[in-house]
Amino acid sequence: xxxxxxxxxxxxxxxxxxxxxxxxxxxxxxxxxxxxxxxxxxxxxxxxxxxxxxxxxxxxxxxxxxxxxxxxxxxxxxxxxxxxxxxxxxxxxxxxxxxxxxxxxxxxxxxxxxxxxxxxxxxxxxxxxxxxxxxxxxxxxxxxxxxxxxxxxxxxxxxxxxxxxxxxxxxxxxxxxxxxxxxxxxxxxxxxxxxxxxxxxxxxxxxxxxxxxxxxxxxxxxxxxxxxxxxxxxxxxxxxxxxxxxxxxxxxxxxxxxxxxxxxxxxxxxxxxxxxxxxxxxxxxxxxxxxxxxxxxxxxxxxxxxxxxxxxxxxxxxxxxxxxxxxxxxxxxxxxxxxxxxxxxxxxxxxxxxxxxxxxxxxxxxxxxxxxxxxxxxxxxxxxxxxxxxxxxxxxxxxxxxxxxxxxxxxxxxxxxxx
Length: 419
Ligand SMILES: Cc1ncc(COP(=O)(O)O)c(C=O)c1O
Description:
By secondary structure, the protein is an alpha/beta fold. 40% of the residues lie in helices and 15% in strands. The strands form 5 sheets. The protein has a 7-stranded mixed sheet, sandwiched between helices. Strands 13-14-16 form a 3-stranded antiparallel sheet. The longest helix is centred in the middle third of the chain and has 19 residues, at 266-284. The radius of gyration is 23 Å and the shape is globular.
């Protein structure tokens, strides 16, 4: 399976956690940005400078919004400075109040966007197969204070949109989606962005399509779109005319220039991500206890995330140890969304027992790790990473034993200093 030059570890003491010689000379990160056509970006930046129009719904932002709306097949797109502000704007414009049901297995911004406006995020467990909010459990958590639901299409894997829509309709709740991961993905062959009252994308540097920092709200609701557009620009309806409370959520022209450039490479990014995903899939197929999250074959996916679930009972090595060993090799694997929003402040203090209702979230946050992918990693490096994972699992017992032996002070220091 592996070419001999990738067989770099013959002995457990060859592992960098012991030997201090990493497999990779430079760190391989999760979420290294896809850059796209540098020349096109620089031409746009020059154009922007020549025109001396840097922000305030300029030409590039308008073009970016149009392209996003067309790509998804939705009426309105409002570009924003980031995904978090986009969530806050959508939540506010929808008039959510009291309690809103959200998964805890998400990036903290989903919960913060509510709490920032003194709306209580009520954490609902996930379906372990899809990693998205479980509609069955969600139904049981609706109270008279519930005003809405925010589903999160984690990894670009769609929520059970149909079930959530039905629950929202039956209970007169507003439904929106955090689609931060899901640009270029589909649900039942329809592009994500069309569902609920509104959906929110992130175009942060680590995302599939990036605008350095950026976000967008997409909706088919004319009134909602108008309200959000006003709110994004302080509530200005025209010069000297503020008709609404608002904030500064505008995307700037340099970000839109990057966003447009990124969109031009969309097919290439998917191709590269898919190739990497297939490579991981082939190389990790026969490791018992290590499962690679599988994207729906029949849906569009951006394949932006390589997600492993580590079952310690089968591998003999736990997720955290695996992450630490890989980190020493300069493979900066990440624990997402560890430890879960409900275990972070202020939610941990507000709801100290939330975990009791979140068994699947608790389990998954102990098992999930992400591996590097995207345009900055090549197939050979992926094979090498997989070889190391094979090696670690095969030698789990002796590695565990060796790890509990006191390390030399130099090794200890190095491990403490790792980010
Ligand atoms: C699920 C999720 N929601 C919201 C956000 C916030 O987006 P941004 O970083 O653009 O503010 C992110 C990512 O960063 C995310 O992963």
